[in-house]
Hints:
The chain has helices at 2-19, 153-156, 248-276, 305-309, and strands at 23-26, 30-32, 36-42, 49-55, 77-80, 87-92, 102-108, 115-123, 139-141, 146-148, 162-171, 177-178, 181-188, 194-199, 203-204, 209-217, 224-232, 235-244. By secondary structure, it is of the alpha+beta class. Strand 7 and strand 8 (115-123) form a beta hairpin.
Amino acid sequence: MLAVLALLLAPLAGTAAAADGPRVKLSESQAGSGGSITVSGSGWRARALLMILVCGQAVPSLGVPGGTNSCANADGRAVTTDARGGFSRKLPVAEPPVPCPCVVHVATVTGPKAEADAILQVAGHAVEPLPAQTDGGRLSALTDTRLDGSGGLLTWFGAPPVRTLVLTVGNVGTSDVKNPVFQVGTAHGVFAPQWEEQQWRGTIRPGGKARIELPVELTGGAHGAYTVSLKYGGKVLAEQPWGVGRPWGVTLFWVLVCLVVPAALFRIGMAVVDRVRPRPAGGIRHRGLRLPGIALRLPVFKPSTAAHAAPATSTLPWFTPDADPGAAGERLSAPHDDSPTSPTTPTREGST
């Protein structure tokens, strides 16, 4: 019964903790560079991905005015909250790139933004007063951001995707903002954004507003889920998701290369084999399959000169040269002896 009651009260406790806001607690408030502390928290969104950093020039009441540029990003740690919105993670203590006062800054990576800070004294690190806060112009986003533009044929073949970040900002300060310098960041998935400074030409008077258009460009062949962020004065003004399609033209190109190159190599190899292989006797070259019905041409032997000089006779194979009917006056009878001494030939008396 008690176990069932505890299970029923657990979600209510988590909801109450979440209503109080996210909190961060440190195992030690002072540590030297190279050491480590344990960072724990409660009141966060369940199953949320958080980033833990040591940041300088910051206090919990003001947050981190310099953004993550004033944090030891290389020594940060990521953690995922449990079902109740709590976490516990060891964090190496590193010196931030700017002087202290320092804090341990915890912020969500994805989903609704939430952050919390806890004071940390980094032993041996320089300490300087915070920069004076002026009552100058301050910009705030008045409308949702959007990305204008679309991809083309070149983008389909791996060219860098390009869009234009468009939003309307207003000056909520007491002085003019002239030629403000924005920071545009692009992040792929859960990775930290890569920031690039871009200056907008113009003046925004107190209480006024202006339409801001800034170009955004990714690297060639980029695809997947990206997030475009806009920051001014160390504060993130807006974020816009950007789903970049895969450059299928590059995939098609490599498929064609894998098909055409082997076929070309095969043809070249067969041509080389046909050139270097031995030829059959008689000089007949077989270059491949021939169509049926095409007869081979046999060599023609020309008659010699002696054959042209000899008289034309009709020698038949069953007659000897002496008994050829056409050679002795076209006689058709059987041959006989006409000599005068022949015993079978009668002689007339008185003949001379």
